Each structure stands twice: as C-alpha cells, then as structure tokens.
C-alpha cells in the first residue's frame, strides 16, 4: 500500500484528564504541528470531544472523537481506545458515568483510608475542591498530601501511602468498555499493547492471548504506532494485527508539557510502509 | 577531561517517578549540549515501561546516548523490548570475590588468583584499571599472533573496588609451584624457562606496537642522577644510552610465577609489561626476581616464589648459563654484573619512590644496592654481551653476519687460528646449504647458536631452520676421485665439515632441521 495517508496523531490528552493543554491550546498546537487528522483521547471522558466539535471551524484539521478507558479485570489492566463513536450515544455515556462513579468512590475510599490508617485529614474545603475536579485521582491526592506536609513528594505520597490501599473492583471492565464503544458506533482499539495500562511489559504469547481475549469481547484494533515504541515493539504489534486482521492506529500519547512527548510523534513518517490495517482503519472512520 | 555528560540512574524507574526523573535528566542535559549522554545504570534495579519511554525520549534528542553498567535484570528488559538495538548498552561487570582464593601470581600492576578449577582472575590495584586491562588484552593478543603462547582474557569483572580480567587456565601450575613441590625438576624447569625466554627474545615486534624498554631505562637513569655520585649517575645514563635499539620482544617481568604449565603446554602470563628492547633489560629484571630483591632478606623470595633463596640462586645461575650457551663462570659473571646494573637501578628507584628513604630498613637496602651499583659501574664499560643465538634470513648476503657472529665467540675464548679457520669453513658450508636449499624457491630464517664449554674447552655451533627436512649426514661421502662436474652439489662441503669437526649430529625435531657441529679445542 503506497497511497498517501494524512499526517495523523490519534492519541492525546488535555486538561479534561491529565494533560496540560486546554482544548483550544491543543487545537492550536495540532495545527502548528501540521497534523491533518487528530483525535482527543482523554481518560474516561468524552466532554472534550463534544467541546472540540463545537469549537472547530472551517479549514481546521479533520477530527475524530476519541476516548481512552482505563480498564481492569482479574487478569490485569488495559487501556482501551474508542474512535468515531457518537458522543450522544447512551451506551458510551453509561460507561463514562460508571467510570466516573468508580473514580469518585475510589477517591473518597482513599481519603478514608489515609485518615484511618495514618490519621491524615484534609479540610472540607480541600476535599470539596478535589471531588469537583473532572477526573480526580492519585496524583491530586498526592499533591494535597505534599501541601499538608504528609509526604515530601507526590511520588512518595503515592508509593508509600496511597498505594497501600487497593480498590481492585472499582474499575470499568474491558468488556464493558469495548461493548460501550461498539454500541455507540465506535471502533475499540487496544492502546500501546505491550505496555498494558502504561507501565507493564507484556510480550510474546501473553500479549497474544490478551489480544485474543479482548477480540472475544469485540476488540477491532491495536495501536501499533506509538511514541514509546522501539522498532521491535512496533513490529511485534504489527505482526499481531496482520495475524488477526486487526485495524492499526497511530498515536503519540501527547500530554502537553508534563510529559515530553511531541505531538505527532507516532513512529509513522513519510518513509514508513503503511500497513493494511491502518489503511482499513482510515477507510472505516470515513463518514 | 570527559567529553560526555554522565547521568546516574538508580533504584526503580516506574510511572510514579518517571516524569520527575525525566524532568531532572533534561534539566541536566538541557542547554542544547552536543556532548554525548552516558547513563550510568550501575545502581538501577528496575525499569518499567514508563522508564523505557524516558530512555526513548532521551535517545530521540541525543541519538549518541549510551547506557553503561546495566545489570542483567535491566539488560533483559532492554533486550526484550528492542532497546538494545536503539542505543549502546554496556552490561555491568560481573562481581567476583577473591576472598580465600589462592594467589598464583603477582605482577607489577596486580595479583592473579585462581577463582575455580578452570579460571583465574588478575585483579588490578590501580585506579585506571580498565585501561590497563584493555592494554594487557591488546598486548597479549599481539604476543599470541606473534607466536608466544599466552592466555587472553575473555571477561572483565568487578572485584571489590577494583577491576579484574578473567582468563581460562585449566589445571595449570606455575613453575614456582612445580619448583616448590618437586625441586628435582629444577633442570627441566630451567630448560623450559630459557626456551621460552629465547622465544620471546627472538620475536620481532612491528614498530610502534610496544613500549621501548630503553626509553624507560633511560628515564630510570635520569631519576637516579639525584641519588648517585655525579660520575656514577652519568656513567649509568651513558651505558644505557649506548644499548642499541632492539625491536625484539621482552616480557618485562619474567619469572617462574609467570610461566604456567597447562597440560603439556607452557603458557606465559601477566603480559602487561610486554615491551621491546635489548635482552639485558630483561636479565636485569630476572636477576631482581631471584636475587636482587632478596639479597638482604632471603625470606622475600621464599614468601613470593615459594622456594628458598638457595634454589633461587641455583635457578638463576643455571638459567643464565643456558641462556648464554656457556659454562664459563667468567662469562656468566660478566653478564650477571651487567644485569645487576639494570637490576639495582630498578630496585633503588622503586624503593625511593615507595618512601624507602624514610624507613630504617629501606635506608639499609638502598645503601646496599647503591654501593653495589657504584662498584659495578666503575668496572663496566658496556651493557652489551655476546648473545648465544643469532637469527637471520637465510641468504648469501647474511653469510658475513653469521661468520662474524661465530668469530666473536671464538675470539672470546682465544680459539687458535687454525681451529677458527676450520670452524669458519664448516659454518660457511652449512649456512650456504640452508640459504640455497632449505626454503627454495621461498625464503626463510635460520638460527645459529654458539655454545662454549670449559674443561675441556669445546665449542658447539648449531644451525636450525624450518625448511624441508633434510639430513645432510645421510648423504654418502662423495667420490673425490670424480671430476668437479660429476660430483653432487654440496656433497663435498659436508664431507669437509665432517672431516674438520670432532662431532657432527643431525636431528629433525619440532619442525626444525637441527645440525650441530662440535669442535674440541
């Protein structure tokens, strides 16, 4: 396949989740980077996509609604990307709401745990502020602990205190995320497959079994082009895509200024041979 | 000094601290530097994929980055994920302990321990050990290429705060150990010791590959000027300066702990002092190993070599006699005195540099060596001595060199003119034969050895070549009644040789034709 494809980056975050760019700033950066097709994939949230659809104007780069669900089951953690869904569809909103509820329960659970185990308490004002964040999580609690002098650094707060409590059942399951995306007209894709939910290393047969299991739930694609991949990792994912006839996507996982990933850094450039799975994906998302 | 920026990674790098570490690293390497980045991962225990992505981003901005001291656990992760293909990854050195291990050798730069049945490790004591290891590896390789049997290190390891290089040395025993446990093998040890020594000194080294021992010796002489009477200091410098440049190999620290018997093979080890130069420099260092160090305290050689001073003295004397190819005490003593000049120079300098002037024992030793040295300098006019062997290209042009080499030996023992002429005639015959036939149509080398005995006085001249096996003695004596045209080439020469010499013997051994001519005087 030698047909030209648009310059694309289908994996990026904004202030809606843990990125540092506002949606407006991101749109400006995307344009400046010469990206022709982009997708915003905030963690467990679709409101950013609604907003982008609202602020886009004529001549802006092509936009594909996206999301990145953090999922967990008995066998591990997964990041499932969803593309091209209808943001108003009931199914995907249900999963997002469920995820948000879990998140809130986890935050309050963690605060309770810190109080009970270590006697760390926070003012009502600070707790309210925390709970009113769109996506509160461990880093926000950690920052608060540093402010109160309970820990020296956010890292120490997380590893030494917050992680002492686990809420294994308070996560969206991968089958729910995949089904929610499919039922809303979207394409479910496994994000950075060898890295699991971002910090594991899953290779070889274990990875293959994982993909096969998720395909059983309806998974349709894998993210084979990714800023954090070596050629070896990329080739491994491409081989899986070929073997199981999966869509292939490409994303940087841009987070603004708090991670040093440039926009558009996907490992895909003018010299890359375009795999059939990517061409098929671009076909599939055409309106 | 360093042309790179080194950043230390330690502990764990995972999603918790990766962003913070990444920020710190980029702060360190910021400022748009072009210098290569070296990540020192010696203390890095674990790296998760979040950490890998940090490495990848450093790699993207600094394509020449490398990571060193990687533990095997971290290496496995880098290897599985293809990061080892992306930048240079240097594994951490294996850690080896020598506690309780037998010390089998001791050299100028370190000690050698046996770590198991098959392996030994040479532990370097100095700070620049990695460079020294690299140097020794290179010179050992060079020696091996040039035909000196030696062990090449196959691994570099960490030993305490220092580094070591590991060699395979199967079931090997040092000559010191053999002499200690089986002193009856003295003669065999001497023979093999000298054989190897001659092999080293007969090895021509391409220019510029090894240090020149003469230059080093000159620097000693310069150092000594401050500690010797003016005249003696100047003479020492003059004597060393007069030693001609020599491109043949010398070991530099040749003694019985550095010769290992491995199965039936004899290996030379501890190669870091390998150099080129005149053999007198080597003899000086050998003298020290067996005598010089222990002259005032005989326990020193016992502690170091394992055998006592008497055996050391006997070994040195026999080895020198064999090396020089003579049993003339006068000749041996002469060369020993030259060796002692070099030896004492080294000893005094070494003792002074090790603050010997500040201790009573040191002062006593230095005074003793100094007195000996000054006395020797007074009566010595040259450090050169007549070598017992000469190796030359077997060509007609070199006949003159060979004949004058033999002649200088005969002059030394006041050989009568008639015998001298007869020996010269025989030597010419044999050498020309080798030049014409041994390697034809190619060229090759011939070695000539002159050995002299006293009581009864005799001289033995041995010719050795690696040409086609040929026993000239098997040829039937020519029919001297035939005309010149009808006679076999060379036949007459051998006939004459047999006639004028008292004993002529041929053997083919070790791929060599060995022909000896003996003349009783």
Question: Which features characterize this protein?
Answer:
heterodimer, A: 287 residues, alpha/beta, TIM Barrel, DNA polymerase, domain 1, 2 domains, 7-stranded mixed β-sheet, 14% strand, globular, B: 521 residues, alpha+beta, Transcription Regulator spoIIAA, Phosphorylase Kinase, domain 1, Aminoglycoside 3'-phosphotransferase, Chain: A, domain 2, 4 domains, 6-stranded mixed β-sheet, 5-stranded antiparallel β-sheet, 16 helices, 21 strands, 43% helix
Briefly characterize the structure.
The complex is a heterodimer of chains A (287) and B (521). Chain A is α/β, with parallel strands linked by helices and 287 residues long. Chain A has 2 domains: 187 residues, TIM Barrel (Alpha-Beta Barrel), CATH 3.20.20.140; 64 residues, DNA polymerase, domain 1, CATH 1.10.150.
Task: Describe the model.
- The complex is a heterodimer of chains A (287) and B (521).
- Chain A has two domains: 8-96 and 187-284, Metal-dependent hydrolases (TIM Barrel, Alpha-Beta Barrel), CATH 3.20.20; 101-164, DNA polymerase, domain 1.
- Chain A contains ten helices and seven strands.
- Chain A has helices spanning 23-32, 47-55, 90-118, 124-131, 138-148, 154-161, 174-183, 204-217, 231-244, 276-284, and strands spanning 8-9, 37-40, 62-73, 76-83, 187-190, 221-226, 247-251.
- In chain A, helix 3 (90-118) runs antiparallel to helix 7 (174-183) and helix 5 packs across helix 6.
- The longest helix of chain A has 29 residues, at 90-118.
- Chain B is an alpha+beta fold and 521 residues long.
- Chain B has four domains: 5-92, STAS domain (Transcription Regulator spoIIAA), CATH 3.30.750.24; 102-168, Phosphorylase Kinase, domain 1 (2-Layer Sandwich), CATH 3.30.200; 175-379, Aminoglycoside 3'-phosphotransferase, Chain: A, domain 2; 389-520, Histidine kinase-like ATPase, C-terminal domain (Heat Shock Protein 90).
- Helices cover 43% and strands 22% of the residues of chain B.
- Chain B has a six-stranded mixed sheet. Chain B has a five-stranded antiparallel sheet with strand order 17-18-19-21-20, with helices on one face. In chain B, strands 1-2-3-4 form a four-stranded parallel sheet, covered by helices on one side.
- In chain B, a hairpin with a 4-residue loop joins strand 7 and strand 8.
- In chain B, helix 7 packs antiparallel against helix 8.
- The chains are: A alpha/beta (287), B alpha+beta (521).
- The interface between A and B is medium-sized, with 23 and 23 residues.
């Amino acid at each position: 396949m030698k047909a030209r494809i648009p310059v694309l980056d289908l994996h990026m975050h904004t202030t809606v989740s843990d990125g540092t760019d506002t949606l407006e700033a991101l749109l400006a950066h995307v344009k400046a980077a010469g990206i022709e097709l982009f997708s915003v994939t905030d963690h467990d949230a679709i409101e950013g996509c609604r907003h982008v659809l609202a602020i886009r104007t004529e001549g802006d780069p092509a936009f594909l609604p996206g999301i990145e669900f953090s999922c967990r089951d008995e066998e591990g953690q997964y990041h499932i990307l969803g593309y091209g869904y209808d943001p108003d569809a009931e199914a995907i909103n249900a999963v997002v709401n469920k995820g948000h509820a879990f998140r809130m329960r986890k935050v309050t659970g963690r605060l309770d745990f810190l109080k009970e185990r270590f006697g760390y308490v926070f003012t009502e004002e600070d707790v309210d502020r925390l709970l009113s964040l769109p996506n509160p999580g461990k880093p926000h609690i950690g920052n608060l602990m540093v402010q109160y002098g309970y820990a020296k650094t956010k890292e120490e707060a997380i590893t030494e205190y917050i992680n002492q409590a686990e809420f294994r059942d308070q996560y969206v399951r991968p089958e729910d995320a995949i089904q929610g995306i499919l039922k809303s007209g979207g394409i479910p894709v496994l994000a950075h497959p060898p890295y699991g939910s971002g910090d594991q290393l899953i290779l070889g047969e274990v990875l293959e079994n994982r993909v096969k299991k998720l395909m059983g739930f309806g998974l349709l694609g894998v993210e084979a082009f990714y800023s954090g991949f070596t050629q070896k990792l990329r080739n491994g994912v491409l081989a899986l895509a070929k073997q199981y006839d999966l869509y292939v996507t490409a994303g940087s996982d841009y987070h603004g200024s708090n991670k040093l990933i440039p926009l558009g850094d996907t490992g895909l450039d003018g010299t890359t041979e375009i795999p059939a799975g990517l061409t098929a994906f671009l076909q599939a998302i055409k309106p | 000094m360093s042309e790179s920026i080194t950043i230390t990674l330690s502990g764990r790098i995972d999603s918790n601290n990766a962003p913070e570490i990444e920020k710190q690293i980029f702060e360190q390497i910021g400022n748009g530097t072009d210098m290569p980045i070296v990540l020192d991962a010696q203390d890095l225990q674990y790296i998760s994929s979040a950490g890998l992505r940090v490495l990848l981003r450093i790699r993207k901005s600094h394509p020449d980055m490398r990571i060193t001291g990687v533990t095997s656990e971290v290496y496995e992760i880098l290897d599985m994920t293809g990061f080892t293909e992306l930048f240079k990854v240097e594994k951490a050195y294996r850690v080896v302990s020598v506690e309780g291990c037998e010390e089998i050798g001791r050299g100028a730069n370190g000690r050698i321990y046996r770590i198991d049945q098959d392996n030994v490790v040479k532990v370097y004591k100095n700070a620049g050990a990695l460079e020294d290891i690299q140097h020794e590896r290179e010179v050992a390789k060079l020696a091996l290429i040039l035909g000196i049997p030696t062990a090449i290190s196959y691994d570099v390891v960490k030993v305490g705060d220092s580094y070591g290089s590991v060699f395979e040395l199967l079931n090997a025993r040092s000559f010191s150990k053999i002499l200690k446990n089986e002193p009856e093998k003295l003669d065999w040890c001497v023979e093999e010791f000298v054989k190897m020594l001659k092999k080293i000194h007969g090895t021509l080294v391409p220019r510029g590959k090894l240090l020149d021992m003469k230059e080093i010796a000159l620097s000693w002489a310069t150092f000594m000027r401050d500690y010797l009477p003016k005249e003696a200091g100047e003479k020492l410098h003059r004597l060393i300066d007069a030693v001609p440049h020599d491109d043949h190999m010398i070991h530099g620290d040749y003694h019985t702990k550095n010769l290992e018997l491995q199965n039936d093979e004899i290996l030379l080890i501890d190669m870091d002092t390998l150099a080129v130069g005149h053999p007198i420099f080597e003899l000086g260092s050998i003298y020290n190993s067996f005598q010089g160090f222990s002259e005032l305290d005989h326990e020193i050689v016992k502690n170091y070599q394992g055998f006592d001073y008497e055996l050391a003295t006997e070994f040195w004397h026999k080895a020198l006699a064999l090396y020089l190819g003579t049993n003339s005490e006068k000749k041996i003593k002469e060369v020993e005195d030259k060796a002692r000049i070099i030896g004492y120079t080294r000893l005094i300098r070494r003792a002074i540099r090790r603050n010997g002037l500040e201790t009573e024992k040191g002062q006593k030793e230095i005074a003793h060596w100094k007195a000996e040295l000054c006395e020797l300098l007074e009566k010595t006019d040259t450090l050169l001595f007549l070598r017992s062997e000469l190796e030359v290209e077997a060509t007609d042009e070199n006949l003159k060199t060979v004949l004058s080499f033999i002649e200088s030996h005969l002059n030394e023992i006041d050989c009568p003119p008639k015998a001298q002429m007869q020996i010269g005639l025989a030597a010419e015959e044999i050498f020309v034969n080798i030049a014409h036939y041994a390697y034809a149509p190619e060229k090759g080398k011939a070695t000539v050895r002159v050995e002299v005995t006293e009581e009864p006085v005799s001289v033995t001249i041995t010719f050795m070549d690696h040409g086609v096996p040929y026993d000239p003695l098997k040829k039937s004596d020519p029919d001297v009644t035939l005309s010149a045209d009808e006679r076999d080439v060379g036949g007459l020469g051998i006939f004459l040789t047999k006639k004028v010499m008292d004993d002529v013997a041929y053997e083919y051994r070790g791929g060599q034709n060995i022909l000896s001519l003996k003349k009783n005087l």
